[in-house]
Design brief:
Elements lengths: L2 H7 L6 H20 L2 H6 L4 H12 L3 H16 L4 H33 L2 H9 L5 H16 L5 H18 L1
């Protein structure tokens, strides 16, 4: 057998550029961890050394020192399996997207109710558990408030009530 035949059986090692891309991806994952609140960070089940490094990086304000700390976090990430951390971050992203979508839905209903009489019937049809009388009063107060250019206290109350109803329906 020749040396060429031996090389065919062995898988190629990743290139230096690929190793750098992988290291940068882990460092970027570590940067995402810095953005999380403490409760979400605890749910990621990080090793103690990595958790300490992330908490320390949050306190660092100087650019150079922060960059070194992020590189250190990337180095620590290379020693663990990042799949569970990525899965938790993806779950948190989905929750955030779902929360934003619900918020926009509530805003749309509020705006439609304030501008269109027919939208009340649609809302009642879609969410039959709501208190019709209370909702009509909130709409009436919010419209009168807008007509008088007053601060939007009743508009906020309408939004809160819609949020209660829509979120309870989605949960």
């Amino acid at each position: 057998m020749t040396d060429q035949d031996d090389n065919i059986d062995q898988p190629e090692a990743p290139s230096k550029s690929q190793l750098k891309r992988d290291a940068q991806a882990l460092q970027d994952l570590g940067t995402e961890l810095l953005q999380l609140d403490n409760a979400s960070l605890q749910r990621c089940a990080l090793p103690e050394a990595l958790l300490d490094a992330v908490l320390a990086a949050r306190k660092i304000k100087q650019h150079g020192a922060r960059k070194r700390q992020l590189q250190y976090i990337g180095k620590l990430m290379r020693g663990i399996d990042p799949a569970p951390i990525e899965a938790e971050l993806n779950r948190l992203r989905q929750l955030h997207l779902q929360s934003n979508a619900t918020f926009h839905l509530i805003e749309q209903w509020r705006d439609r109710l304030l501008q269109d009489e027919q939208s009340l019937a649609e809302l009642i049809e879609q969410y039959p558990q709501l208190d019709r009388q209370h909702l009509r009063q909130l709409i009436r107060n919010a419209r009168s408030e807008q007509a008088q250019n007053k601060p939007p206290r009743h508009v906020r109350n309408l939004f809160r009530y819609l949020r209660e109803i829509i979120q309870s329906e989605n949960d």
